Fold:
Amino acid sequence: MGQVVQIEYCTQCRWLPRAAWLAQELLTTFEAELTELSLKPGTGGVFVVRVNDEVVWDRREQGFPEPTAVKQAVRDRVAPGRSLGHSDKASQE
Structure:
C-alpha cells in the first residue's frame, strides 16, 4: 500500500504558499514512495504534517519546520534507512 501525506495549514494565517512549497519538496524527494499528498485547509494557526494519519510535525509543539527536518520525519516512516544525501549530512553537523 502506498504512503499518504497530508499537510494541514491555517487559511487565516495565509500559510498556503508555505504548505504548497513543502508539498512540492516532499513530492520531489519521495516521488516513488508517496501515492498521495494532500493539502487540508484549517484554521487557528494549524500547521501539521501527517504520514498515514500519524502526526510527524506539529507547528504548535515544534515550531515551523525546516524542510530537512520534515523530510527526515517522513523518510523515517516511508523509506527507513534511505539516505537523503546532503539533507542528512547537514542535520548531522
Q: What stands out?
A: DSSP finds four helices and four strands in the chain. The first helix runs from residue 16 to 29.
